[in-house]
Design a protein that fits this description.
Largest sheet: 2 strands, antiparallel
Shape: elongated
Strand content: under 5%
Strand order of the largest sheet: 1-2
Length: about 240
């Protein structure tokens, strides 16, 4: 019975960690409403020079693009000055690909909510059934965290060794077409968001994710420690 309880609790914690990952992605991407990270990246990779645009115009495009990704805008179309001409920043290929990205992004959010709900229900049931639930939570979270840590380290090494290949594999896994293959000569979006930007975003997401996981671990550790103190008092 204890083994079954442990397996069920570990499953809940795995779901909780998945929810934490999706929340971390959201926080890294949308945590700053002024998009200061994006602005810094544009300056770092000299995006304004490459597009012959002012930073204000690039940020204007960014704001509309980010609103589109979360469903605040129905159409991805921004008329601005690019390479000295007033035109729509996005072409048809951009729009088709970003529609896929939006579906993936919003679908991921739904998965995160489901994972969180599953974890919450299971842990709520275990809390009622298990007297030492605080210790159970900490132990099974540590197990789930270890499993995710192994996955994270392997992915981190892979991205570090060859980010381009990993980035390509990611797109082939999650997209059923080749719309993500852009031509810098005709597609402005790939010039605004070069590969280096995505590499830095992966690092940013990883930092947020690790911080969230550590925070959860500290909370559960503190709960387990207090439970031990209460046991000693009772003795």
């Amino acid at each position: 019975m204890k083994k079954l309880t442990t397996i069920i609790s570990v499953t809940a914690m795995m779901c909780a960690v998945m929810a934490a990952l999706i929340f971390s992605i959201w926080l890294a991407v949308y945590g700053d409403s002024n998009y200061r990270f994006y602005k810094k990246e544009y300056q770092r990779y000299e995006v304004t020079e490459d597009l012959d645009m002012s930073i204000d115009h690039v940020m204007y495009v960014t704001e509309h693009m980010m609103n589109y990704l979360i469903g605040k805008e129905e159409e991805l179309s921004v008329v601005t000055t690019v390479e000295g001409r007033e035109q729509d920043f996005f072409n048809e290929r951009d729009r088709l690909h970003m529609r896929d990205v939006r579906n993936l992004f919003l679908g991921g959010v739904k998965v995160g909510v489901i994972c969180l709900a599953v974890a919450a229900v299971i842990l709520a049931v275990l809390r009622k059934r298990e007297e030492d639930w605080k210790r159970l939570y900490f132990r099974t979270y540590s197990i789930a965290l270890s499993a995710w840590l192994v996955i994270g380290v392997l992915l981190g090494i892979a991205f570090r060794v060859d980010f381009t290949t990993c980035f390509t594999i990611f797109h082939k896994l999650f997209f059923t077409n080749n719309l993500w293959v852009f031509d810098p000569e005709t597609d402005y979006m790939i010039r605004m968001l070069p590969e280096g930007f995505f590499s830095d975003m992966v690092i940013r997401i990883s930092e947020v994710f690790v911080a969230v996981l550590v925070l959860i671990w500290i909370v559960l550790f503190w709960g387990k420690r207090n439970y031990k103190k209460e046991e000693k008092k009772d003795d």
